[in-house]
């Protein structure tokens, strides 16, 4: 079995897939997540009806129970918070939580409408402003997000959350000094703000200050051991330090905290592929595709894992799926070419795919001259040339054989001619047949009554002529011995 797999996509996700609050998919940049529904309870001078409060408390208890079971039924929660909101129009917190649920259900327009409604009912509900800013940041409207965060800080100077999120924006724009300043300011106001700590971890990692990144990450884990991002961050730091075993344990700890945490599944899949643990890699890659079935890079890596287990046709199916999702992903063509080259005995097609990979990578100038693809291409081209030469040699051998047969037939004919013999009949494979499929019949003698001439013995002396006046062969008659 050919177990080589040097051509995986370089990355399935960013080196440090930490978000400002929640997890991200393997194809997108880090994005903040919405605030949890249970963190916002009714407060303020406006009196809320007892019925609305009871309905709200029931909805929060349902959320807590589903969180503990790690199985959310968002439509059910939506109905409960909607009932609380309808019971009292002043219950802004119920409106806010409906926005959070809509966002988690993939309904951003509804989420924005609920957050705006919550702010209309209660302008001091800064969590709604935070989430609107987060949504703007996620959509790429960084300027709009900054304006909202600054508005929150103008109204709430001691707000740590907005400072941490502003710090993340500055970090993403490579202004690490401002990012660290805002992170420290957030921690002064809220020493347990893990979002600010995550910004610091990322900033230290990007500046290759591993010792400081590790120190902050371990501090953050002590504050919240249930946050998968923090375990993942420690794993990435250990990986950069060369401690693969320790990194693997941290990635597994992240999955214990959140079983569907995609970045840790990605990291473990990559470690498994590097160790040629193909069944283990397959397990993590399938979990990734459960969360994001359109992840073309994950389909390519799954193809590599299947190839490593000898399931070549299934691997080719994964490469086909990856090509449909992203035709510009060069690793698809490279890995498909390896199977055609090494397994399917189709080096001609493999060469075409290798060339396509090189073209997508920017050409030979962009690739390192030591890249293994060039060795594979030369090997496949040599196989193609050898096949052509072998075919040409085979055709030449057939022609020589036919020529020898003709020459031998000509020599035999010449020998027969010199001896006065009929030339040998051609060496036919079978007696010819007539058009009706039967053997030809003997030609009858002519109807003249003449007998056919006797055959002359081949090569014998001519028969003696009959004696003139020869007497009949009668024993009683005297022999006529006159000359």
Helix fraction, binned, reads 55-70%
Beta-strand proportion: under 5%
Query: Could you list the spans in which at least 5 consecutive residues all have pLDDT below 50?
Result: 1-39, 429-475
Main β sheet profile: none
Helical run tally: 19
Total E-strand runs: 0
CATH topology assignment of the domain at 26-139: Serine Threonine Protein Phosphatase 5, Tetratricopeptide repeat
CATH superfamily of the domain at 26-139: Tetratricopeptide repeat domain
Task: Characterise this structure.
It is a single chain. The protein is built from 19 helices and no strands. The chain has 483 residues and is mostly helical. Among the domains are: 26-139, Serine Threonine Protein Phosphatase 5, Tetratricopeptide repeat; 158-258, Serine Threonine Protein Phosphatase 5, Tetratricopeptide repeat, CATH 1.25.40.10. It starts with 49 loop residues before the first helix and ends in a 65-residue tail after the last helix. The model is unreliable at 1-39 and 429-475 (pLDDT under 50).
